Amino acid sequence: MFNTLKNRFEQGYRTSAYPKEKIALWRRYRGLPQIHKDASAELAAECADLCPQNAIDPVRRLIDMGRCVFCGTCERISNGAFVSFTNDFEISVAEKEHLLTDGSLPSLADHSRQHFKKLFGRSLQLRQVSAAGCNACEADLNVLATPFFDLARFGINFVASPRHSDAIVVTGPVSRNMKTALLRTYKATPDPKVVIAVGSCALTGGPFRGSPEITEGLDTLLPVDLYIPGCPPHPLSNLHALLTFFK
Amino acid sequence: MKTDFLEIENGRKLARDEIPHLGFDEFRHQALDIVKDGGKVIHYFAYPEGGDMKLMAVLRTDRLLAAGCDAPEAYPSFTAECEPFHIFEREIAEQFGIRPEGHPWLKAVRYHANYRGKPDVFGNDYAEDIPGNYEYYAVESEEIHEVAVGPVHAGVIEPGHFRFNCIGERVLHLEIQLGYQHRAVENLLLNADARRLPIIAESIAGDTSVGNSLCYSQAVEALSSVAPDKGAQVIRTIALELERIANHVGDLGALSGDVAFLPPANYCGRMRGDFLNMSLLLCGNRFGKGLVRPGGVCFSLADEVRNILDERIKEIKPQVRHVAELLFSTPSVLSRFEDCGAVSLSDAEKLGLVGPAARACGMPYDARRCFPTEHYKRLDIPEYALPSGDVYARAKVRGDEVMQSINIIQSLINGPVETDCVNGKIPALEPSSFVVTVNEAWRGELSHCVLTDAEGGILRYKVKDPSFHNWNGLAMSLRDTGISDFPLNNKSFNLSYCGFDL
After folding, report:
1. Nearest CA-CA distance, residue B175 and chain A, Å
2. Are A165 and A122 in contact (CB under 8 A)?
3. CB-based contact (8 Å) between B442 and chain A?
4. ipTM
5. From 3.50.50.60, 3.40.50.12280, 2.40.110.10, 1.20.1260.10, which CATH number describes the A109-246 domain?
6. Tens of pLDDT, residues A119-144
7. How far is B20 from chain A (nearest CA, A)?
């Protein structure tokens, strides 16, 4: 008993004050990409050429955050002169076309559906479906339950059954072997319901693009309401998206 | 024992024609001899060359051994005589339609059509969804009931199907059917543009991003005669240890939660996040993605970063130790951990278990000690194993490894670490070569094997996650165990679905 109390004392109070207080992530963290329009055409073309995810449009000077895995190759190649990654983790969007960006994102709050806020603003129950990713997205959704993030304090929980949920949160590139289970889970979720796509795989197939076993974008199967980019998205990106979209 | 198998080195390139090409009977006979004599299977796979199929085996005793042969369309199963080949033969049958006659458990591994358009060995119709016409092992009696769980589970977890045959609460047999996460990773590694390969390798299993990118990068380095500098080796070692710590700490918390002792569950959840944030400190990603690339690392361990890392570890180390002491000294925890889900040493040997799950059964194999890469060559990794094979041993081994890994990292950051960062460009591979890379990832022996063709293209990319060995360990641990102890046993192994499914 004494040992339990001693540990409790040592651990202290750890819950973050976000969103009331802003959090500045370490500068090596790669969040919202910023395109520098004044970079030369050759540099832009070189970055596009070396991007492993084919995420850069060098002519329109845009980067597709749906495909991007935030590996930082373009920033390294251009030494930050064409693309630099900021430490801004608030990068989720409600419309797929907004993933294609030069670094200025429309406000998620303005694009969230007002009736969702009314329906789910005080209580939101999520059902997660893991569909063939690498389990990193799942891991960084799971941590939202740990004391630092403490998702439950906002009235948001992950639940064990689609029957109890308001939204499904899908990760992974939806393999052929997982498609039916995903569609059945969606069907089992009562209306009105929300679909949230988390991570590069669910957005576009991510690192697995081109494999005949996967689906290149959850939106080709289900109507997606909220897109959270990243490989995986930082837990704070997930938290920001949920709070801004529903609160 | 005389053998024609060639002794090879971890991460050392060979010309493919240096690897002994035996007659099939000789290959079978010698491979069986080595494994029956206590050897283990690291790889056993098929690959096409020209119009023919070949087999390749990489085995380990206290050395690494390799040999190959022409693949027959059907052959007398190795498994019938020697269990450790069991899952490998099923995989070969699934991937290339080569039938091991007399295999005692010939079933689909990941549920996909074979790559050669041969008649399906398992009689599956892949137009039907998994589990399709999969026949689960069944125990028949009036008293028996089956429990089916998954693929979608109650938590935020990867998909898989578990089929329990129970009498009352007691599990007689658990069968685990995976494949839901199958993305055809090996084929993608074969066909995708070279610049994509590091990203794919890191996404084989996200919780083992560093392990997989290390195996991949070492393979490319060997095949292109590029070597990382000493500083890069230190940084990679730190990253692999951080990955180990984060996962072990998280699982100790989850185990505590599964026996309803909530303080460590919460503390470990938070501390795991702190270790993930140390990976982010290194390379900007909590899972170490983007750090390891052929030739070295993409991010330095500048003194500023090193000092922050040092401070954070100094702060968290006593907290981790105290929480582990709390966990392992609480009677209600011990009464649930001890004697729960024990796997015997002899079963563990037959299943070929690896990693902490094997060390908990008295098998001290650790690739960091036996086949060291990176900076491990200069570290003294102690021989360590516990005998009991139960949840307690699996938890304790992992708890002890956490402290050991923290000490390793501290010893590596007490002085400046200098490296020339690489830009991530992928060098060309030498033709007609072979390499196998083995690393001790947090779940155990992780290995990639790469064969190049006459033009320097990749002919075969074979990935083996430790979970490929260990899922059957979980199934065995459930025998004669209460079904309510499944979550506890499952978490004590915490195996990878995506690493297995590929």
Report:
1. 18
2. no
3. no
4. 0.93
5. 3.40.50.12280
6. 777 889 999 999 999 999 999 999 99
7. 34
